[in-house]
Amino acid sequence: MAKDIVIIANYGPLPTGKSNNRLMTILDLLVKEGLNVEYIISSFSHPKKQQMDIDQKALEKLPFKCTVLYEPGYPKNVSLKRFYSHHIAAKNLTKYLKGRKKPDLIFAVTTSTAFGYAAAMYAKKNNIKLVIDVRDLWPEAFKMVIKNDFIADVLFYGQKKKADAIYAQADGIVAVSQTYVERALSVNKKVKEGLAVFLGTQLDKFDEFADKEKSLKPKDEFWVVYIGTLGHSYNINDIIDAFEILKEKGLTNIKFKVLGDGPLMDSF
Q1: What angle do CA 84, 89, 90 make, to 5 degrees?
Q2: pTM summary value
Q3: Which of 32, 138, 193, 239 is deepest in the core (most CB within 10 A)?
């Protein structure tokens, strides 16, 4: 009988649309290996701040099972409603896992902490192998918003303990940077070496389109391009300030191109 793998991601994309996402790549690889795979995600779209439009018939046609668990949602990234929303989603995840057959392995994205903690504690209780994918460091990420370290440490003490428990339970550690790998390994006594798999894209696909499309860039211009989220983690303001200095020096042929969206779009 084929191994039963569960992939859990609070912010996972719906697999029925086009998505250049590492989870979709993992799902595709596991299915090709002939494994039984279930993909469990939240009903709430974090980028759009709304419930996802779910096509149940399209989900049923997938080569793996996709389970969407209800999460009430929240209007802002940093808010009490967000933590409440994650709490409800985690409760629904725990209830669902208890009602299904025990899998052979769980692959869990650690953001949010509540969702990841529910997966880790279920794995621990049932002696199931757990591989984690550290996409963001919680509660460290919130210190970008709450500048006072002492206040942040007090407010998010419980979050830190949960994050430590997730990292400690892991039998395998994957992360989007070596810094995140080291953070997880710092409290884990089972894993000797984690794996940093950086966020990116399929270069062969990129090159394919680059060869087809005629460049829109004038030859006399130098372009700096940022592609990604417009949020607290990326200091676009420093780049904007740098370009202002260049402009004052008469260097007007250097252009800054931004491809993305996010909570600080209006501010930037």
Answers
A1: 95
A2: 0.81
A3: 138
Q: Cβ neighbours of residue 267 under 8 Å, at least 6 residues apart?
A: none
Closest CA to 20 of 208, 202, 229: 202
Least-confidence region, from 15-29, 81-95, 138-152: 138-152
Question: What is the token pair recorded at 120?
Answer: 């880790």
How far from the centroid of its chain's Cα atoms is residue 105's Cα?
20
* Distance set, CA 164 to CA 78, 98, 138, 171, 233 (Å): 21, 23, 10, 14, 22
Instruction: Compute the CA torsion angle 227, 231, 235, 240 (nearest 10 deg).
Output: 70
Q: Label each residue of 170-221 as H, E or C.
A: CCEEEECCHHHHHHHHCCCCCCCCCEECCCCCCHHHHHHHHHHCCCCCCCCC
Mean pLDDT estimate for the chain: 89
